[in-house]
Specification:
Layout: E1 15-16, E2 19-20, H1 26-31, H2 35-54, H3 60-80, E3 99-100, E4 103-104, H4 124-128
Antiparallel strand pairs: 1-2, 3-4
Helix pairs in contact: 2-3
The chain binds iron/sulfur cluster (SF4) (2 copies).
């Protein structure tokens, strides 16, 4: 007797390069986040906080020098951040090819084939035919 095979999940809304992006709990969502992105955001927020505090400096020249120093420090710190799985896109830039929104595709499970949660992706031609 031949084994029953699932249909492909390729046309599912949640399907992204062989992975299933449907997370079912906040814990699971947290686990699949891109750590590099989170770390960049954390550094950015810390810098913003420090920039806010610079407003307390009375001398505008001192403020400007300190502002430039902080921004440079932030850029250097961000440039030093890395991740073992990081693959920069061919066209260059800070992103990673595995990043999908705030998630890392490598941390998401493989699509197991068309399942009960399959949600057909609405392509452009279908969307165009619908009334608003
Ligand atoms: S592999 Fe890429 S997307 Fe995944 S955590 Fe590392 S930098 Fe983020
Ligand atoms: S078919 Fe199921 S497993 Fe595959 S992407 Fe869709 S929801 Fe995820």
């Amino acid at each position: 007797m031949s084994a029953v095979q699932r249909l492909s999940g390729q046309h599912c809304t949640y399907f992204m390069r062989g992975r299933c992006t449907r997370t079912v709990s906040p814990e699971e969502s947290a686990r699949s986040r891109c750590g590099l992105l989170d770390e960049r955001r954390r550094l950015g927020a810390k810098t913003m906080d420090r920039l806010e505090r610079l407003q307390r400096l009375a001398d505008p020249d001192d403020r400007e020098v300190a502002r430039r120093h902080l921004i440079q420090k932030n850029m250097d710190a961000i440039a030093r951040l890395t991740c073992p799985g990081l693959v920069p896109p061919p066209q260059g830039g800070l992103l990673c090819v595995h990043q999908h929104l705030v998630n890392c595709l490598l941390k998401l499970p493989n699509c197991r084939g068309r399942c009960d949660d399959f949600l057909r992706r609405r392509d452009f031609s279908e969307a165009k035919g619908q009334q608003p």
